[in-house]
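Dear Dr. H.,

I hope your travels went smoothly. While you were away I took the liberty of generating a structure for the chain from your last submission, since the lab meeting agenda had it listed for discussion. I wanted you to have the full record in hand beforehand rather than looking at slides cold. The sequence, exactly as received, is reproduced here:
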Amino acid sequence: MAERRHRYCYFALLVAACALGLAAAAGDPTSATEQEAHADDEHTEDEHHEVHEVYAVLMPWFVQALGIVVFFILTRHIHGLPYTAVIFVLGVIMGIGSIRSGQDDQLSSSIRMWTMIDYEVLFNVFLPGLLFKDAFEVNFHLFMASLSQLMCLAFPMVLAGTVLTALVGWGVFPYGWSFYQSLTFGAILAATDPVAVSALLNEVGAPPRLKVHVSGESLLNDGSAVVFFYVFGGLWLSEQGIVMLGGESTVAGAFAIFFRMSLGGALLGFAFGLCLVIILYYLDRRMEKEEIVLQVAATVTTAYLSFYTSEVVCGCSGVISCVVCGITTRAFGNGMISDWQVMDAFWSLLEHLLNTVIFALGGIVFGDVLSTTGPDGERLWTGSDWGWLFLLYVLVTVIRFGLMFAFFPINKRIGLGTSWQEVVFASWGGLRGAVGIALALALDNAIMSEYPGTENGISEEATLSSRMFGMVGGIALLTLVINGTTSGPILMKLGLAESTESRKRILTCAIEATRRRVLDDFLHLMTDERFFFVDFALVMHHVHILKDITADELQAAVEANKQSVHPSQYQVPHLDRVLPYIKDSGRLRAAIVKSKGDFFASYVPGDSQGCPGGAHPLFGTIEEGAVISRDELHRSEETLAALLPLVKDTRVMFVELLRASYMAQIKDGELDPREYDGGLVYALFEGLDLTEDAVAKGEPLGDWTSAQFNSVTWILKCEMAVRRATSSFCSRKGGPKQRVDQLRDLEPGQYQELRMNVLLALSFIDAHKEAQDRLKDELGKGSGTAEVAFNKVMNESKAEVRKAKDVLMKQTKKKLNHVISHYLCVILLNKQARYVQQLADSGVLLPREVRHFLEEIDEEIIHIRSCPLDKHPNAIGFVDENADYDETGQFKGPVRARKRVRQKSIL
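The corresponding predicted structure, in token form, is as follows:
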């Protein structure tokens, strides 16, 4: 019940956010620019109009901001609701608010401007971006194999559905619609938009045949529905004395429209697609980022030009042209795309932006309809209209089921074939969306512009189109909410998703493969001196995939790790803190001892003494000498003065090597960009950027001073304030109060400052060591003057490393190992997340499975950042170096026996 109440609260927060946005925009009805315009009587009316035109920019970006909040809440707290349905509802609230408020504020003015957008502008802005992506991503070979089925579903079934739906509007509805208006209404509702269903099919691993039937039918349905819309819409508008949407007002002219738009649009789309393929062929420099960007720009340009040329210039169907262009490009230009990841990312972004605006705009107009009064001064939309809307939803669903099963005997014998289960799902998954909303909105605006309203309300002619839009918008909302949310269970019930048992076996194999790779990474990291004394109990507590590792698994991983590198480069992993937790590990330890002697000296952590009195491996090489002696350096001063330009260039090169090292740490998961809300990366790169400017002026390296003292204090303050303010809202597990308590009681500012300094120093030291090695590999010491410059920069780098190590040496070993052990856990979890994503990219894991794994990993990383435990369950105390192992290498146990330790704060 508590979880349900939280979900209701989050949904209420969406509504409140929308209302707050309206109130904020309404709070200042006149901007400063307007006030100046009113104050100055010499300003002309044209200038005043230009001020208002800029308001059109506000509505789409305000909606995008709302969309970000909606998406965040839906993915974290309210699973199952379609994103577009929520955006539509918020649009309804905005539409009602802008009408009933009666304000002339900026947002309300922007909303009203968008509701009166010209239908041709609407088509040319939204439809190409939405249609081309779907056509461009279709499985071309399966599409062509099932083309006969799709053509059967596209034209004959769409026409039959249009007529049957028209009979509902003409014979059932009490609105007095003419037959041509009812046919127009039927054509609009014939356009399907299974965006939510298509995503579901990809997530659950539905059969490829079903996916191509759903997506292919949608593409061709859109084209045929738009053609029928132009045909019947032109006939209806001619009854109203309006000449647009093709202009012909006779039945013979309607047939001419049909053939011109369908065949002409297909030919134009094919021609544009071939031109795009040629352009992609010549943009073949795969290693140049500019040409990759140009390829993306070419696809966008061609998509919009093909639509415009066909729709506006040639009077054909822009929808069919754009769809055919996308399919042609997919067929012949698939192998010419230099970077599919960039291409897909851009088109996904464009689709998201356009869908957000078009559904919000549809909701706004629907809200406008709900608030509008007719010519008699009464409400246009009443309670009875809601009843007719729900009846229409039932009848439209029945019509679709009836038609799909009527064509089932034919579709079963042609193309790829089909099954009754697939027909049931395709019938239920026929959602209405962006294309239908765009068509209805265009028609409503066309009527509104010809027949403006009066003081009492809209005109009699406009009531016909507005009520029709209300029905279309309502059907879109109901299909999204009802059909979209229930498609998943229906798909499972019909047995069209991959079987649960088979997926469990695949998941088990995938988890084992990931476990082996993470274990291999762990062994590799255990050759790094930073992690010699990590607490393996802590690692098992946080990295669940490494829990219950057996001796055989560990030995196999050690052997695989040894065989993966050249013998001269192999380093034995430091496992003296790991083997005590592994049952029957004596044989493994004996093998390791035999290969590299007994290096398992037990480590006695200090209680309160700082690291200078101990022997932590991080500081074993702290005084590693200069590459050249002081005398040599003194004798080189005169030479160095003459070689300042060479030294400066070497420093600049070293800074770039540092930057590459930090980026490699981010890629490998060793530097988490989310740590301290990005503050850790900010501090490191701030020091690097300031040093880059300093070395360009001839100054020595000094990036540690900049990173440490310019950033740490205020980053900690900001991070703690942000996390306290957002912890309850962003928490995914447990109640909000629990997370706030953890932050207050278990993450004191003192510990966070310690952790920040340690992580900063570890990343800094590792980056400098990597840059030093790369500088040696790339340039070598050189000879003569080049050697002097090389040694100068290397010494400056080592001096900076010593400063970072000094910060670490001020900490006690216990606290230092606590932070380093958690740091290792974050690295392993980031690597695990990367492996899971790779399994998804290769098709082994489904998107919904990947989402589950990644959410668990993110949760654990969040928990690590606020982990309050000094010692973790089943931790072992190492106090006697002679009591841990016997002569065979078998662990006997420390003097202080293994026990479950009390959970307490480190500070």
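Two observations you may find useful: The mean pLDDT is 77. The radius of gyration is 34 Å.

With kind regards,
E. W.
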